[in-house]
């Protein structure tokens, strides 16, 4: 039971009247008894909270940064009206507008809409629905809570989608579907055309040229039906924050752009999220983008060192045919030295490997600082970090590994461009 502020006001008003009619002590006691009677009566007349019935509907998923609505249907099977405040509680990260005023006559139902604006990825689970039913005098209220389960999955925002049209246009050029007839150096024969200055003489078809009145060259289109495996490192290195988001979120954004582009290019795309165990896997999905965002949504970084040997073994076990393996991880020297480098040859002997890493723009800013002694020390430390990353990149390149190292905003388009370059060169 909850007693409102009206009780104190009535006590102040009733005490002088009762005190005038009765002696002071008896008047105060009678006033208290009258007020208590009114409170009990108000409580008895308040609509029942326990008998209310609830049902949910509405959104089950939403992209991070977008709003959605979840509706709560409340039915009153009792014989008294319910005048109440309702709180539809959600976790703080759901960004819920959760307080509602409710008037519910007997035998009727009302629909309450809660607007959500989530601030984090993952599953946002509804907490309890609490109803405070106020009596007709406004002196007391019944309060009760009900479990009405509902889950809204908050998906990755896919900010890099804006880069997709330009990369698809380049893909169309490579496939020869654009008016600009640019041919890739793939391995799949496409057609013959007349030789023009600048063509590779190795593409001349001498038999066709002997039958024609001009020199003919073969044109090639980029390979299709190749296999691309995206590997998200969800270990300790992915937990570091760059700007307002962890590195894992930037890696997901780059992986989504590459996945959609590769799928449109006719390649098969798989996903594996791993640190010391598999946290998500997508293989051979026909609805690729929904499958990827649903698999990525609940992923969180683990504060453990990634088991590179286990990761490589898992990739080799799942991927029998030759593939482009895109590992989204860090370029920190120590973890790679102890983890990936000892097993690198196992992976590169079977597959082509590309490593994509999220760089911190703050490091480059610190390296340029020269304002005072503290800035110079910061610049020296930042320059050492940049030098280590360059050394790691050079060492990986000697093993035939493609490396894309860029800040979060630039990583998705640069990774997509590197994929298109490999495809055009027939190196997948």
TrEMBL record:
Source superkingdom: Bacteria
Designated name of the protein: DUF58 domain-containing protein
Protein species of origin: Amycolatopsis coloradensis
């Amino acid at each position: 039971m909850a007693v409102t502020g009206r009780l104190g006001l009535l006590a102040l008003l009733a005490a002088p009247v009762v005190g005038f009619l009765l002696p002071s002590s008896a008047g105060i006691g009678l006033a208290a008894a009258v007020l208590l009677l009114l409170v009990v009566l108000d409580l008895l007349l308040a609509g029942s909270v326990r008998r209310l019935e609830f049902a949910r509907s509405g959104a089950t998923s939403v992209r991070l940064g977008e709003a959605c609505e979840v509706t709560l249907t409340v039915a009153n099977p009792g014989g008294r009206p319910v005048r109440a405040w309702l709180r539809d509680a959600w976790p703080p990260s759901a960004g819920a507008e959760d307080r509602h005023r409710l008037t519910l006559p007997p035998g009727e139902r009302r629909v309450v809409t809660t607007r959500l604006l989530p601030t984090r990825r993952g599953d946002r689970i509804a907490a309890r629905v609490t109803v405070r039913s106020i009596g007709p005098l406004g002196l007391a209220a019944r309060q009760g809570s009900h479990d009405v389960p509902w889950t809204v999955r908050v998906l990755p925002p896919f900010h890099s989608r804006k880069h997709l049209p330009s990369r698809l246009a380049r893909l169309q050029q490579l496939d020869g579907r654009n008016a600009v007839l640019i041919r890739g150096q793939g391995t799949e024969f496409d057609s013959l055309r007349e030789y023009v200055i600048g063509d590779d003489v190795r593409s001349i078809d001498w038999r066709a040229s002997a039958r024609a009145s001009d020199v003919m060259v073969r044109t090639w289109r980029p390979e299709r039906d190749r296999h691309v495996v995206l590997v998200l490192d969800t270990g300790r290195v992915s937990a570091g924050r760059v700007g307002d988001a962890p590195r894992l979120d930037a890696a997901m954004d780059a992986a989504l752009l590459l996945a959609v582009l590769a799928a449109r290019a006719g390649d098969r795309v798989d996903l594996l999220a791993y640190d010391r165990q598999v946290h998500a896997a997508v293989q051979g999905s026909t609805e690729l983008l929904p499958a990827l965002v649903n698999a990525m949504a609940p992923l969180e970084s683990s504060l453990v060192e990634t088991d590179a040997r286990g990761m490589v073994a898992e990739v080799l076990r799942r991927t029998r045919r030759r593939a482009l393996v895109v590992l989204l991880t860090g370029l920190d020297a120590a973890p790679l030295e102890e983890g990936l480098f000892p097993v690198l040859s196992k992976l590169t002997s079977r597959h082509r490997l590309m490593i994509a890493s999220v760089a911190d723009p703050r490091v480059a800013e610190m390296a340029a600082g020269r304002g005072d002694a503290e800035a110079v020390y910061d610049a020296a430390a930042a320059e050492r970090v940049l030098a280590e990353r360059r050394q790691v990149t050079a060492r990986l390149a000697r093993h035939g590994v493609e490396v894309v190292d860029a800040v979060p905003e630039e990583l998705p388009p640069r990774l997509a461009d590197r994929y298109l370059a490999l495809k055009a060169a027939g190196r997948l």
